[in-house]
Design brief:
The protein is mainly α. The protein has one domain: Up-down Bundle (Four Helix Bundle (Hemerythrin (Met), subunit A)). The chain contains 6 helices and no strands. Helix 2 packs antiparallel against helix 3, helix 2 runs antiparallel to helix 6 and helix 5 runs antiparallel to helix 6. The longest helix is centred in the N-terminal third of the chain and has 26 residues. The termini are far apart. About 25% of the residues are buried. The structure holds ascorbic acid. Ascorbic acid binds next to helix 2 and helix 6. Ascorbic acid (ASC) binds next to helix 2 and helix 6.
């Protein structure tokens, strides 16, 4: 009986500590989070760049290619934010201290980008080049204003 009670206690202690650590951060180490968010931004920039080439007329506008790339941007735009947790303000990062000091403003900027990216998908799907270009500018503006406030040069 004692053995059973002890193992039950052991299992619940393990479960509690597991859920506590899972809640703290989805990343094992701060460096992992920094690597992850940079990777997410790199992929985002690659696909946003393809849209930029179309918006600037360097590549002919193609609604299917535009909406495929915009969908990737919109999906990727959800990812980096969970990787700005505690302890990720130091090391190989250009993130400014303002990310953590002005966290409500940072969250707002992140949400603005996500909202613009969703609108960009819809704009690309209309097949109208002008509509796409307008939405592309708005999304790029959201990238830029967040970079201006929260990313070091
Ligand atoms: C890009 C890219 C960014 C944004 C930003 C918009 O294509 O890689 O970081 O656009 O320059 O101002």
């Amino acid at each position: 009986m004692k053995k059973i009670i002890f193992s039950l206690i052991a299992v619940s202690v393990a479960a509690v500590s597991f859920s506590a650590s899972a809640q703290t951060s989805p990343f094992a180490k701060p460096e992992d989070a920094i690597k992850y968010r940079k990777a997410a931004f790199t992929v985002t920039a690659a696909h946003f760049g393809r849209l930029g080439a179309m918006a600037q007329g360097k590549v002919p506008f193609d609604a299917k290619a535009a909406s495929d790339n915009a969908e990737i941007v919109a999906n990727m735009s959800k990812l980096p934010w969970a990787a700005f947790g505690e302890g990720t303000d130091v090391g190989e990062t250009k993130a400014k201290p303002e990310v953590w000091k002005q966290s409500a403003k940072f969250k707002e900027a992140a949400e603005k980008f996500q909202a613009e990216a969703i609108k960009l998908v819809a704009a690309a799907k209309t097949g109208k080049e002008d509509t796409f270009k307008t939405a592309f500018s708005a999304t790029g503006g959201a990238c830029k204003s967040c970079h201006d406030d929260f990313r070091a040069k």
